[in-house]
Design goal:
347 residues, mainly alpha, ABC transporter involved in vitamin B12 uptake, BtuC, 15 helices, 0% strand, globular, cell membrane, transmembrane, membrane, transport, ABC_transptr_permease_BtuC
């Protein structure tokens, strides 16, 4: 039995209501799963804590060691995993909706590579602060998006042309990134290479706060454009007939999507797979062809938090960068997706 498709203009609004109700229940279940996994992550580690000890430490009570471990080390990491994962998931939902292709993810079309390039320039050439790294990542992501958009423009930028151009630009930027690392000082290169794998190790409030604020503001702005994004999925002509300026709205959504991926990259480095998979997993959970950006955000938060927990526990006491875990899983997922799309195109 095929899942119902959300169609705009449903005369009695029943389909719209089912979509909203399904999205609400899915969001609540994902939020509950995130909360449970967050508690598990806060308790686990070299200093295991009971639920009572964890609650006391969150309130600033109990032993000084437990309070420091929870409030200064584990809590920033868990919250940033949730925020960064949500930003990646929502960014993926935006770009897959605009490109109308499940491969239209920012880590496939090269926008996160551009953000990494911008942050890498600030790190290796200017030894910038966390605020400057966030600004460099945003500038790099926006410039990469503008370059891809202009090169793919043929009376519009849609579909596989945008994906192919994005892959080509991503390859060129990757070469530039390697050149920057080779020519950087040893200390800067080692720090940038570790961060470039995508990691939440050593996350603190000072490191994460600038990017977290940017992510939250961009997500709120994107949610205000959710209805316009749905109308664009019907085609530019239909969206224009309903009073939506198609190209202007597309540019706004692309800018917000790049801001999300760039802010996430500035905080934790380039993390693959989450932006690609979260919207599609959310779509299957909701049993609809229209993915809610909010549901994709909750899914991304859960995926990244789970991946980070695995990165900490799989080879304990050694901790892997979370990007290593996501890229291993993401490679298999991308291969399955490509084989599935190839099979679907056969007559």
């Amino acid at each position: 039995m095929k899942p119902a498709v959300w169609q705009w203009g449903d005369p009695d609004g029943a389909c719209n209501g089912r979509m909203a109700l399904g999205g609400l229940w899915t969001g609540l279940l994902l939020a509950a799963a995130c909360a449970a996994l967050a508690v598990l992550s806060l308790r686990a580690g070299a200093l295991p804590l009971s639920l009572e000890q964890l609650w006391q430490a969150l309130q600033g009570q109990g032993g000084r060691l437990e309070v420091a471990v929870v409030q200064q080390w584990r809590l920033p990491r868990v919250l940033m995993a949730l925020v960064v994962g949500a930003a990646l998931g929502m960014s993926g939902a935006i770009f897959q909706s605009l490109i109308r292709n499940p491969l239209g993810s920012p880590d496939v079309v090269g926008f996160n590579t551009g953000a990494y390039t911008g942050a890498l320039v600030v790190i290796t050439l200017f030894n910038g602060s966390h605020f400057q790294i966030a600004g460099g990542a945003l500038a790099g992501g926006l410039l990469a998006a503008a370059l891809v958009y202009l090169l793919a423009w043929r009376q519009g930028a849609h579909g596989f042309r945008l994906i192919i151009v994005g892959i080509a630009v991503s390859a060129m930027l990757s070469a530039l990134n390697h050149w920057l690392l080779i020519n950087a000082s040893l200390e800067a290169a080692m720090g940038a290479a570790t961060w470039g794998a995508g990691t939440l190790n050593g996350m603190t409030w000072n490191k994460g706060l600038p990017s977290a604020l940017c992510c939250l503001l961009a997500m709120l702005a994107a949610l205000t454009l959710q209805r316009r994004m749905r109308l664009l999925e019907m085609g530019d002509d239909c969206a224009s007939a309903l009073g939506v300026p198609a190209e202007r709205t597309r540019l706004w959504l692309m800018g917000l999507g790049v801001a999300l991926i760039a802010s996430a990259t500035a905080a934790a480095g380039p993390i693959s797979f989450i932006a690609l998979a979260a919207p599609q997993i959310a779509q299957r959970l909701q049993r609809t062809q229209a993915t809610s950006p909010l549901t994709a955000a909750w899914t991304g938060a859960l995926l990244l938090l789970a991946a980070d927990y695995g990165a900490q526990q799989l080879f304990y006491p050694r901790q892997l960068p979370v990007g290593v875990v996501t890229i291993c899983i993401g490679g298999l997922y991308l291969l399955w997706l490509l084989l599935r799309q190839t099979g679907a195109r056969k007559p």
